[in-house]
Design brief:
The complex is a heterodimer of chains A (220) and B (217).
Chain A lengths: L1 E5 L5 H10 L4 E5 L10 H6 L7 E4 L2 E4 L1 H11 L14 H27 L8 H19 L14 H7 L1 H4 L10 H11 L2 H10 L18
Parallel strand pairs in A: 1-2
Antiparallel strand pairs in A: 1-3, 3-4
Chain B lengths: L1 E5 L5 H10 L4 E5 L10 H6 L7 E4 L2 E4 L1 H12 L11 H27 L8 H22 L12 H13 L9 H12 L1 H9 L17
Parallel strand pairs in B: 1-2
Antiparallel strand pairs in B: 1-3, 3-4
Helix pairs in contact in B: 1-3, 1-6, 1-8, 4-5, 4-6, 5-7, 6-7
Classes of the chains: A alpha+beta (220), B alpha+beta (217).
């Protein structure tokens, strides 16, 4: 049995969505970011850094969402969601897979500043402002590159799962209104039956307590 | 001609080192975080987010060091693990985990170096990120086990990717509890290709101190 170790609305949603796109059967072990469950010995044995996602599959345990998505595409090529070595858009595909994490790292920093520090006053407003601007730059980069349907001209791929996931977190910090192509793209992702089915299994996130976190005021 | 857009000491060093391992001929175009060279329109044509590395190769441009690493290994048929090999999973995990470590380094670099005034920094985040970096390195320590390189089967591109991050980590984390990582890094530094890469890296612009102490600790 495939088992996904998952925190609702976290990076592990990428894997949840991907498995659903592939029509694979799997079970979910759910964790909370704040309840200490990620620090248990049992979980550490599966995910050495104590992070989600971790995926038990084919007799082994994998971590890192990018690695898991690549592995799934390579071992289940019939789903057509990867671009194999030598494919014409292989380079673009790999670039988008990595760029998704560049962008997610900025979201992670903003999550920390706005949500996870016990006292938001411990965050640096300068850094929050900077990271918000950097997130906006990555969104602008995508805005100019997203195609009429999906990120690659050859159709939906794991890169859409990897990057598309970000577009549901980024609006907590940067409104998507200024990015019409990305907004339309996000709507296309949301309309996918596998996306809908995956969200139904995602569980409720318990960290964002408002819809938007504005940039704090910067003053010495 | 292969051309690497590079900032001394930045992630692009991974690619510089890997291409030396591959004995490829390439030219290095040095850029800087501290002038406008990454924001220049001609550069944004190459690397739309204004980041290094960017690699001009085979009539295209690729950005993101992880993507370039995979592309080069597939092109050269060396230092990677193909999808049919059992070590592929570990190779992929290390490749991506190298960037997880890299993100902690980026945050520490931002706080210690890019922000010039102390009031701009968050001491909490600086301490937290140093701790998270230490934990990530403990994963490398455990993963090395008894072998010389990250993969039991021998040196590969993930040694360049994770190795770069670990080498830089020495400026933010004490290595007393990381003897295997320290030994592995010494092996990395002893490689002729590493040394050739270090000679082409360019004058340090980012890291001028050997160690950046977390505040209050």
């Amino acid at each position: 049995m495939i088992r996904l170790h998952h925190v609702p609305f976290s990076r592990s949603f990428r894997v949840l969505w991907m498995l659903t796109e592939m029509g694979l059967e799997f079970e979910i072990a759910a964790y909370g970011i704040r309840d200490g469950s990620l620090r248990s010995e049992a979980f550490r044995a599966i995910s050495p850094a104590g992070r989600v996602p971790a995926l038990e599959i084919d007799g082994q345990a994998l971590f890192e969402s990018g690695a898991i998505l690549e592995y799934l595409c390579e071992t289940r090529p019939e789903a057509g969601l990867g671009r194999a070595p030598g494919a014409p858009d292989r380079a673009r595909y790999l670039e988008l897979m990595s760029f998704a994490e560049t962008q997610a790292a900025l979201i992670e920093q903003l999550n920390m500043a706005h949500v996870f520090l016990r006292d938001p006053a411990q965050a640096s407003p300068v850094v929050t402002k900077l990271n918000t601007r950097r997130l906006a730059v990555t969104l602008a980069t995508l805005e100019s590159r997203v195609g009429a349907a999906y990120l690659l001209d050859t159709g939906f791929s794991a890169a859409d799962v990897m990057l598309g996931f970000n577009l549901f977190s980024a609006p907590y910090f940067v409104p998507l209104d200024g990015y019409p192509a990305l907004s339309a793209y996000r709507a296309r992702l949301e309309a996918r039956p596998a996306y809908v089915a995956a969200r139904a299994r995602d569980g409720l996130q318990d960290f964002y307590d408002r819809d938007f976190y504005p940039v704090p005021e910067v003053a010495p | 001609m292969i051309r690497l857009h590079h900032v001394p000491q930045a992630r692009s060093f991974r690619i510089l080192w890997l291409m030396e391992e591959m004995e490829l001929e390439f030219e290095v175009r040095e850029r800087s975080f501290f002038d406008k060279s990454l924001r220049a329109p001609e550069y944004l044509q190459l690397s739309p987010a204004g980041r290094v590395p960017a690699l001009e190769i085979d009539g295209r441009v690729i950005f993101e060091s992880g993507a370039i690493t995979e592309y080069l290994c597939e092109r050269e048929g060396r230092f990677g693990r193909s999808p049919t090999e059992p070590a592929r999973v570990d190779w992929l995990e290390w490749l991506h985990f190298g960037e997880t470590i890299g993100q902690h380094l980026a945050n520490l670099t931002q706080h210690h170096i890019a922000l010039r005034e102390p009031w701009m920094r968050s001491e909490t985040v600086m301490r937290l990120e140093a701790k998270r970096l230490e934990k990530a390195l403990a994963v490398v320590e455990a993963g090395l086990g008894a072998h010389d390189w990250l993969l039991a089967g021998g040196f590969s591109a993930v040694d360049c990717v994770v190795g770069y991050s670990a080498l830089l980590s020495r400026r933010f984390v004490r290595f007393d509890d990381l003897p295997r990582v320290a030994g592995w890094l010494a092996r990395c530094e002893a490689r002729p290709a590493y040394q050739r890469a270090a000679n082409r890296d360019g004058a340090p612009q980012i890291y001028r101190e050997d160690f950046y102490e977390p505040p209050g600790g």
